[in-house]
Amino acid sequence: MVKLSVIVPFYNVQQYAPDTLKSLSANAREDFEFILVDDCSRDETPDILARAERELPGAVLVSHEKNGGLATARNTGIDKARGEYLTFLDGDDWLAPGYFSQLLASIEDLGCDFVRTDHVQCTGKARTIHRVPHGRRGVVMSPRDAILPTDRTTSVDYAYAWAGIYHRRLVDRGVLHFRDGLRTAEDRPWIWKLHREAESFAVVGLLGVFYRRGVTSSLTQIGDTRQLDFIRAFDQVIEETARDAEADRLLPKAVRTYCAIMAHHLGSIERFEPAVARELRSLSSAALKRMPQDVLTEAINSMDATRAGRLRRVRRRPVAAEKVAG
Q1: Within 13 Å of residue 223, how many CA atoms lie on the same side as its CB?
Q2: Taking residues 137-153, what's their average pLDDT?
Q3: Would you call 97 helix, strand, or coil by DSSP?
Q4: Is the dihedral of CA 17, 182, 254, 146 positive or negative?
Q5: Which secondary-structure segment (H or E) carries 71?
């Protein structure tokens, strides 16, 4: 029986994939499988993964004929997974030796639906520890209760899928899959759904994932239209949260987070090409008009003057009716 399935998407990461695979080897066990999803890479990544399929214990290679993006690649891995538990890693990140055994032991001891962990962010040679924004450690709690308060950073703002481990029953209940085709912010609707629909979770202080920042091929570094998928991602968060039985309690947090991300992109609009910048303003204006207006006004009023000013300017822009409708 496979105890743990590790889903690792790769796309044009020939420079980093050997380190990722080496760290997987240092985490291998007879009851672990590593699902390596090649998302139609066009560099030497497929050759590296073909060797790994032969040499890495537990490796299962799946190759896409068409690039689908990170969300779709993760879904491919989820559908292929046979483990009682699942976790994720990105193809340009790496792990401490033996980390997955510790992670598995933590969720088995706690007996909850999912466990979230801290991680180490790596930018060049700099290393920074990032903690799950949740004070209680090693205690099983309701994921829904960890969404709030509205005006503070909470567990739903720590959206990294690879910073945790998840029981298979979440797959069976349709909670763990991502929205196909999202090219950025794919973790946002996913983490909100996880916290709304799972029954139990815990946070542990394990440090074993090393998250590589500043990779030039990463979408966080590229100012093209794919970055604008955050609009579709957060529209999904708002739409699904609005249907929740506790919408009145949860929507202010969802709207405020959406506004904060939007203000961030508007504040760095110079990194986009002019046409993309215009589209960002237009899509943002339409998105603001789709939100519940009383909740939106309260969210903007609660923000600092700089971010609030950006949002108010965009909110006043005229928008075509079809864009408002989404």
Answers
A1: 16
A2: 96
A3: coil
A4: negative
A5: helix 70-80
Residue 225: pLDDT band with limits 50, 70, 90 = confident
Which two structure tokens, joined as six digits, stand for 104?
A: 């598995």
Q: DSSP string spanning 241-309?
A: HHTSTTHHHHHHHHHHHHHHHHHHHHHTGGGS-HHHHHHHHHHHHHHHHHS-HHHHHHHHHTS-HHHHH
d(CA 27, CA 96): 8
Q: Which of 146, 179, 181 is nearest to 161 (CA)?
A: 179
Shortest CA distance to 197 belongs to which of 257, 145, 255, 143? Answer: 143
Structure token pair of residue 9: 């998407």
pLDDT at 321 over 60: no
CA–CA distance from 106 to each of 65, 94, 114, 156, 202 (Å)? 37, 20, 10, 21, 9
Q: Cα 69 vs. chain centroid, distance in angstroms?
A: 12
In the predicted structure, residue 90 carries a pLDDT above the cut 90: yes
CA–CA distance, 85 with 1 (Å, rounded to integer): 11
Q: What is the pLDDT of residues 105-139, one digit of tens each?
A: 999 999 999 999 999 999 999 999 999 999 899 99
Return the beta strands (E) in the chain as ranges: 4-10, 32-38, 59-63, 85-88, 94-95, 114-117, 119-123, 126-130, 164-167, 201-204, 209-213
The residue type of 209 is V
* Residue 223 pLDDT greater than 80, yes or no: no
* Average pLDDT across the chain, whole number: 94
Tokens of 219: 């979408």
